[in-house]
């Protein structure tokens, strides 16, 4: 059976719901765990999360846990709730890049779209690195006229490339699942419904 790890922020809302749903719908196919990139160990699932799962006749006995290397090594597939979770995770554990996706990315994008999305994100990371280097140069000695002109052209080039990246990203669906934390039961219901629909596709595809 495949080991699947769901990841969100605090491991009390989205990823516990995903874990409980997949355990319920795919118990003979997957081993399932969840964790949070900024989780405190030992917190229960949010009461609203427990309620919307109970409405589906899904029980949950959950205690939050922080993401760590042992969980990364355990997982065959890591599914995050947002692109930011994915970037944080892969930045800390680069060895996990090839097995880490957002849940929506893994389910909704075809192979060609997935490759395009990866290229867009790589381009974004490269541009942000250039931008950071440019900003760090501001602390250096005052540049001469030629250096100032080169920096100006570099800034203009970065801004132009970032605009291209934003246009490309706009062609893709939103690959994040909104965080219901602090919201109403209805907000949790909406998040749970979205997660459930994706997990049903996940089980069907396997």
Automatic annotation (TrEMBL):
One of its GO terms (molecular function) is protein tyrosine phosphatase activity. Pfam families: LMWPc (PF01451). Residues 134-154 are annotated as: Disordered. CDD domains: LMWPAP. InterPro entries: LMW_PTPase, Ptyr_pPase, Ptyr_pPase_sf, Tyr_phospatase_low_mol_wt. Residues 2-205 form the Phosphotyrosine protein phosphatase I domain. Its EC number is 3.1.3.48. It is an enzyme of class 3 (hydrolase). Keywords: Hydrolase, Protein phosphatase. Belongs to the low molecular weight phosphotyrosine protein phosphatase family. This is Protein-tyrosine phosphatase. It comes from Scopulibacillus daqui.
